[in-house]
Amino acid sequence: MGGNGYKMQFGAVDAAGADLVAGAGNIENKLNDMENALKPLQADWTGSASEAYVQAKAQWNAALTEMKALLHDIGRQVSQDSADGQANENRNTNRW
Predict the structure, then answer these.
(1) Under 8 Å CB-to-CB from 50, ≥6 apart: which residues?
(2) Per residue, what are the HEC states of 10-58?
(3) What is the DSSP letter of 1?
(4) Which of 18, 8, 6 is nearest to 79 (CA)?
(5) Residue 78: how many CB atoms within 10 A of its CB?
(6) How far, in Å, CA of 62 to CA of 52, rounded?
């Protein structure tokens, strides 16, 4: 397009939306892997070490929940924007 226009690559935008949603799941999988790796060590943690771990785990789980929701919302919006852009392009094409 000309100087002030833009061009949307619909397939790439759709892929980006899907990647955002998948990324949220990948982050959760990595945290689950970390949790599983730490399980054998947890039995040795007592007192303040155990409490600190439980508090940190609660914080990262809460942050993960928020991050997943945000990434899902952004991914859905990106996909919706792509669909809207495609629909607009189709309408404009049909005008000719």
Answers:
(1) 42
(2) HHHHHHHHHHHHHHHHHHHHHHHHHHHHHHHHHCCCCHHHHHHHHHHHH
(3) -
(4) 18
(5) 19
(6) 15
- Tell me the residue length of the chain: 96
Q: Which of 65, 74, 87, 69 is nearest to 17 (CA)?
A: 74
* pLDDT tens, residue by residue, 61-88: 899 889 889 988 998 888 888 888 888 8
CA–CA separation, 37 and 49 (whole Å): 17
Give the amino acid at 73.
D
Average pLDDT over residues 48-61: 91
Distance (Å, whole) CA 72 – CA 64: 12
In this structure, is the dihedral angle defined by the CA atoms of residues 26, 43, 57 and 73, taken in order, positive or negative? Answer: positive
Burial 11-27 (b: 16+ CB within 10 A, else e): eebbebbeebbebbeee
Sequence-separated (6 or more) residues with CB below 8 Å from residue 1:
7
